[in-house]
Write a structure and sequence with these properties.
The complex is a heterodimer of chains A (284) and B (395).
Chain A lengths: L4 E10 L2 E11 L4 E5 L6 H8 L7 E6 L2 E2 L4 H5 L2 E4 L11 H11 L7 H7 L15 H12 L6 E5 L7 H16 L3 E6 L2 H7 L2 E6 L2 E6 L1 H8 L3 E8 L2 E8 L5 H9 L3 E8 L3 H9 L4
Parallel strand pairs in A: 3-8, 3-9, 6-7, 7-8
Antiparallel strand pairs in A: 1-2, 1-4, 4-5, 9-10, 11-12, 11-13
Helix pairs in contact in A: 5-6, 8-10
Chain B lengths: L7 H18 L1 H20 L8 E6 L6 H10 L2 E6 L2 H9 L2 E5 L5 E5 L11 E3 L3 E4 L4 H6 L7 E3 L6 H19 L26 H30 L2 H6 L5 H26 L2 H4 L2 H25 L3 H21 L8 H4 L4 H12 L4 H32 L1
Parallel strand pairs in B: 1-2, 1-6
Antiparallel strand pairs in B: 3-4, 3-5, 6-7
Helix pairs in contact in B: 1-9, 2-7, 7-9, 7-11, 7-12, 7-14, 9-11, 11-12, 11-14, 11-15, 14-15
Classes of the chains: A alpha/beta (284), B alpha/beta (395).
Amino acid sequence: MHAAIQVDSIQYSYGSHQAVKGISFMVAPGEVLGFLGPNGAGKSTTLKMLTGQLVPAGGTIHILGQAVRGHSSAIHARMGVSFEEKNLYHQMSAEENLRFFASLFGIKQPDIDGLLEQVDLLKRKKDRVSAYSKGMKQRLMIARALINDPAVLFLDEPTDGLDPVSAQAIQNIIRQRAAAGTAILLTTHDMMEADKLSDRVAFINEGLIHAIDTPEALKLKHGQRAVVVRVRRGGGIEEIQVPLDAAATGDSLKRAVDGQEVVTVHTKEASLEEIFITMTGRGL
Amino acid sequence: MERPKISGPALVLAIMKKDLLQYSRDKLYFWLTIVGLVAYVAIFWLIPAEVTEYAVLGVTYRDLGPLDAAFSEAGEEGLRLLRFDDEDGLRRVMAGTAEAWLDADGELVVVERGDKDSRPEGGTKQTLTLGLAFPDNFLLDTLSGREATVRLLVNNNTPVELRQAMRSLVREMVFMISGHPLPVTEPVAETVILGVDRMGAQISMRERMRPMLIFFVLMMESLSLASLISVEIMHCTVLAIAATPAKPSHILLAKTLFGMLLAFVQVVVILALIDAFAVGNLPILLVAAALGGLMFSGVAMFVGSMGKDFMGTLTWMMLFILPLAIPSVASLFPGSAPLWVRLVPSYSLIDILNRAANYGAGWLELAPAFGVLVVWLLGLFGLGWLTLSRKVARL
């Protein structure tokens, strides 16, 4: 498959501190890659190199088949970025913000109403951004990232601190864009969100990618699955865990429930966060 | 999807349009600009345009004989005489409790201060610089060798030099009448005027204000632009622009052109409103306004990059503006500026504006000043461009 984003052994240092230590990955068209890591792991530096704000000290980046170095304008024309900072023009309205950014892409008649409708801001399009709530600003950031109908989308913490309704709206847009063929690199702290949205996730810590795979594969490979049986015994409730990946899982499960008054039975799966902590020794 | 292509100039223009919209939305700077323009023009036209080239001397005497000729001669050299009938009237006018008016026939009328009814119709009020009260028998006493007292009446507005000159004048008169030599022989002085003799065509305070008002406009626009840049950096909006086909160089160029045009347009408006084009060299004033706008855009880029908030921007701006304002204030006073003022970066700009607007200086005459201005412009603009570039790169 032709990669929309192809990163090979990129490095970057701030003085003597090596922030990114030769990482490689690719994102295919229509794929969502969740880029997970704690603060200072190298996520933002990687994102800045991908968006052309920083020049890698080593390695190569190809976006839509073109090297970022030397083709930045052509690549930026097909790229959408939603930053972690709400870097909007607060004295301008949502419509004016979008119109300005459309003009930077040379789009003469942008579908501003359509975009604002997608993010549920159409009714407030004339209001100045300074009057918007955090969630509204974040939705406008997403609309701005989509103004040029990008083939590649970089989203940095797109739902950070949002209420569940706003977060759900943004997650829906991400799914729609991916279904339409946009390659999406999603940087987030929220493991649940990454699990729900990402086709694959990459664990980055101290400038290195520790694992990159689908959430299911990572859970299978690095996490432990079990069946948890809760039984009533001697006036109390006792919990019995039966590992699913052991050789005699069936027999163990049979012994756990045989002759007992079963209260609940449910499966337990390792979360991405637990796997991340197991692999890196660090929490998110 | 067919991707539209956008040229560099179109990107710069798009950013400038956005800057203009943002500028118009910043109520503080927008209104400060409007109020400033109105205030500068009002101050200019309120300042008197007349230049007083003579001192008005009030005298009381009856028959002074040969001294009449001496006074007439003094009158031709910058003294205008007003003859009072008595010392009391002269004293009251000098003390400010009465007013001296000349009626339509040129006769002196002394009225109580504020007594509008007593003022002669069609008369003009006279402001005395100094008074000389001769005793009634001055001529006789002097001729007969008796001591006579001439009283010099002064007030807070009388220049010290004039008091001394009057004392000399009186001593000279005594010598003329009595024939006795003065105890001190004063050297014969010849008045030598260096440069153009502007007697009869002196520059009024109003005209001297032109460079200072233009500096105020440049300063205000510099602060507005610095604020725009500072906000762009603080909110990281510059990063959002850099993630489009626009490069940091487009952003810097747009800021430069926007700042320069904003300052240039306002300087041209104020030059027109303070009548500078009518008396000055129009092309030189326009070029100077454009170069001034560019120089102050450089200052704004530096200040905008350094200031982390409104107060920070204001503080940095004051550090620049206060020294840069010195030449514009110095231009209010006649005479050459001291060497250290000439070393201030804005001096050459103020000098060009002053000489072109007030003295009609031409290209050849101003070429050295333009040379110095370009050197300072490159320095300040280079500093601003470099600082802002580094700031954007480090965001």
